[in-house]
Design goal:
Length: 62
């Protein structure tokens, strides 16, 4: 089903909505593969920020 915008505000928000859907799907795949994202360990904030990028790289390598 394709959403057709009816005004300029909806036209502006359409790409953002589509990007948000893709990002949510990607995190859903990562959560199914790597359960550490469901219940993250209590580690330093720097490591928590790096963790998703590392898991994406591992997922793409596998």
């Amino acid at each position: 089903m394709l959403f057709s915008p009816v005004n300029t505000e909806e036209l502006f928000n359409l790409p953002h909505m589509m990007a948000q859907n893709v990002i949510e799907q990607i995190f859903g795949v990562l959560k199914r593969c790597f359960h550490i994202l469901v219940c993250p360990p209590e580690v330093d904030m720097v490591w928590q920020a790096i963790l998703p990028a590392v898991l994406v790289a591992i997922h793409n390598f596998i």
